[in-house]
Amino acid sequence: MVYPEASRWGAPDAIAPLYDDVYRDGVISTVNVVEALQEFWQAKASRGAGGAGAGTAAGALVIYESVPAAHPPYVCYVTLPGGACFGSFQNCPTKAEARRSAAKIALMNSVFNDHESRLISDHFIEKAVAEARASFAGAGDNAHSQDTNAGIAAFRFMLEANKGRTMLEFQELMTVFQLLHWNGSLRAMRERQCSRQEVVAHYSARALDDAMREQMALEWAAKERDSIAAGNGGVLRGELARAERELRAARLAARELRFPKEKRDILVLAARVAPPQPQQ
């Protein structure tokens, strides 16, 4: 990955008092976090549209996804407008508690990132780009260094095109480019001499939807076939195991986790369409 970790934009320990008000002694205290999260984003959408009404508010709905499980602990994910995703960060004995757990961390990050200091500005961009460069300093060979520099340049370009927004609202576009880098698509587009502006403009107008996931899954299924045909074994099993570990670690650490979750979902889909590995 050639972009700074999303955890760098997460809520810090300084907002612990808000957490204590939302969650105390394992029970909901003064705040219904599921309703509060929904109301926060509805109000934000109405302000952004000058009070545009119900149609705008409907677009601000948060989306919950419960992971199928026959027994606890249960897991739930919540995706916010703009694409940021958070998950239940506790061992939850019920599906309802898993939903509340995901809503709690999403609400805290929503409030924190809505502060004026968290808006994407010139100062924010310089700081984020400097952190991105520092996180990859001295890592990898020359080819990796070229990929890193290109990725950071694209990161800056996308930030500059989204001034005035929060990082949570910017997350879906960020995730798309993280996936394109992970999938090898950015390098392929660079080799076809597509300009950075053309690539960003194209994907800025596309949603991270089922069609994009299916296309990436087909590409990973093709990589699996090629790897097996070359006698190297498949690539999906290792990639999927790594994505599962990254997703679980991000969820339990209460970090933003859209990128590892999308990787996991794409690889699961790829495994369904890829040929089975031959028996040894």
UniProtKB/TrEMBL annotation:
BP-aspect Gene Ontology terms: autophagosome maturation
Transmembrane segments: none
Superkingdom in the source lineage: Eukaryota
Gene Ontology cellular-component annotations: cytoplasm
InterPro entries, per database record: Autophagy-related_EPG5 (IPR051436), LIX1 (IPR029270)
Pfam families to which the protein is assigned, alphabetical: LIX1
Family: Belongs to the LIX1 family.
Protein name per its UniProtKB record: LIX1-like protein
